[in-house]
Design brief:
The chain is α/β, with parallel strands linked by helices. The protein folds into two domains: 122 residues, no CATH class; 132 residues, no CATH class. The protein has 13 helices and six strands. Strands 1, 2, 3, 4, 5 and 6 form a six-stranded mixed β-sheet that branches. Strand 4, helix 2 and strand 5 form a beta-alpha-beta unit. The radius of gyration is 24 Å and the shape is globular. The model has no long low-confidence stretch (mean pLDDT 89).
Length: 307
Amino acid sequence: MEEQLLHFIWHRRLFDHSALTTTGGEPIEIMHCGIPNQDQGPDFLQSRIRIGDQLWAGHVEIHIRSSAWYLHMHEQDTHYNNVILHVVWEEDQPAVTEDGHRIPCLELARRVDLSLLDRYRHLMNSQEWVPCASALMSVSEMVRTSWLERLMAERLEQKTDYILRLLDRCRYNWEQVFFVLLSRQLGAPANSDAMEELALRVSLSLLRKHGDRADQVEAILFGAAGMLGKEVNIPYALHLKKEADFLRRKYNLRPMPALQWKFMRMRPAHFPTIRIAQLASLILCNEDLMSCIENQASAEEWIKRFR
């Protein structure tokens, strides 16, 4: 068994669901497996699982053996305090979070069809450039073409639906929606959700109101991002913290939890601190973001603004 395969088994629910229980004997009902996490933190986010009579919403961590929890030092990491279920091939040691909570555990060793493991080994040992390449031509051209066209249509439908929901949330302010989408893309790939939440907490009109003061625009953004809570000795950071505390009380701004931001496995140029500073610079340099796009003759002219 490999952890990558165990991730796939959990995500696709390729295991026996009858009479699911934790290793402690509590019944389990899986409402939503969660969203695969490719970055820092637990393996699956935003899962919903009923354990006993309680419905839990949180994260799921996957390991071959439960003792790997300690090998990876998750018991010292606050990012794992919201793990609601530990999914393992076999449990050899109970997992405990940083705040002392023992996590319910689900063993899958006796719930997976052995033929699935055989197919996995066959594909992994294949010498073809794509393991399933030889099987592709067994699918008719009409089916392949229709499938690809449908994927393209679904992608456009999903994007459209997302923007319409965002537009409704922003009370049909198209420029605020553009600001949120721009912020999300600046945070890609690891901090897209966090950057989107930041843009939804801070209105573009508020930032423009302070557009004559670069330090106040940065103070609002970094303060709302929850990045000015710790004690710092850098003079400019202390100045931003002072401004942010004043503006937070004035506008009743709620800072985000600092744990939402991810720094691991990325180049410094992609750090959220850099991206937030770039967002502030874009706002200060462009009075009307939507008009900037509408008035550009080409995409190259718009790209120049990011340089």
